[in-house]
Design a protein that fits this description.
alpha+beta; three-stranded antiparallel sheet; globular; single chain
């Protein structure tokens, strides 16, 4: 009787483990690319306006909460208004084509570059047009460099009348990473990379609790000129050292060779990535 009871308990534990693993296999990590603003190095060479640096400028510009609400409200105003912004709900692609200049008046634009956490150069202009100094800063920046943009602006008169705003100066900030002309690519692209992360990280743990721990983690690594992973590290911990080192880091280091990044001259270059597992992006 005692042996039967022990056998039954072991069987229940085994079945429970299978059940937990099965639940994890239902989890699907999806990587859609960088979720931070980026700028193509080739396009920077021809940039004439701050709007040309990245198509995500106004979409991802960090603003005080109420100012973001006001700006988005102006985008949704009916097209009978003189300062109407592009009809597509989420079409931010170019702040000039989308007539942002009709609702905002630039006070100043500051552009700085950072490399290895240290500020290198800063240039200031009084409107959206880049000065020769700012153009030089952008043209000499290398892939992996972070561009820091600070925009100070006011709402134009007709826009202020619509939302009841005053003439105060608003300040927004955005950090933009310069990426190579052709970014490094996992074999099979985003879809296969997502599958690899799902199978080799999320499906390697059992239980909902451990899966949730992974969503708190983030990893950074570099794809070198040969397409190999180097300098991989856990940049955000799961809170579990075994998961960090034996599952996440091991899976990243064992990734197959990538197609390396290339610059505008066709030369192979290294590229850095940062992957937060909670929302599937860099």
């Amino acid at each position: 009787m005692k042996n039967n009871t022990i056998t039954l308990l072991l069987l229940l534990l085994f079945l429970n483990g299978i059940s937990q693993n099965a639940k994890n296999k239902n989890f699907s990590f999806e990587y859609k690319g960088r979720n931070t603003a980026s700028a193509n190095e080739e396009k920077l060479n021809s940039a004439k306006s701050v709007c040309d640096i990245t198509p995500e400028l106004w979409q991802k510009l960090l603003l005080p909460y109420t100012e973001r609400i006001d700006l988005d409200k102006l985008r949704k105003i009916g097209n009978s208004q003189e300062f109407y912004i592009a009809p597509q709900e989420n079409n931010y692609n170019n702040c000039i084509n989308n007539n942002y200049n009709k609702i905002v008046e630039y006070v100043s634009v500051e552009i700085s570059t950072f490399s290895n956490g240290k500020k290198k150069f800063t240039g200031l202009s009084s409107n959206e047009n880049l000065t020769p100094e700012q153009k030089n800063i952008l043209n000499t920046a290398e892939p992996g460099t972070d561009i820091y943009i600070k925009i100070r602006f006011r709402h134009k008169n007709q826009a202020m009348n619509t939302i009841g705003a005053d003439n105060k100066i608003i300040e927004g900030e955005l950090s933009v990473t310069i990426v190579p002309e052709q970014e490094a690519e996992f074999p099979g692209g985003f879809k296969q990379f997502s599958k690899y992360i799902t199978e080799n990280i999320f499906n390697k743990v059992s239980g909902k609790e451990n899966s949730e721990k992974i969503t708190w983690a983030a990893v950074s690594f570099t794809i070198n000129e040969e397409g190999r992973v180097v300098d991989a590290k856990v940049s955000g911990t799961s809170g579990d050292l075994k998961i960090d080192q034996l599952i996440i880091l091991e899976a990243i280091n064992k990734m197959p060779k990538w197609k390396p990044a290339q610059n505008s001259k066709g030369e192979k270059v290294k590229e850095e990535f940062s992957i937060p597992f909670g929302n599937g992006g860099c």
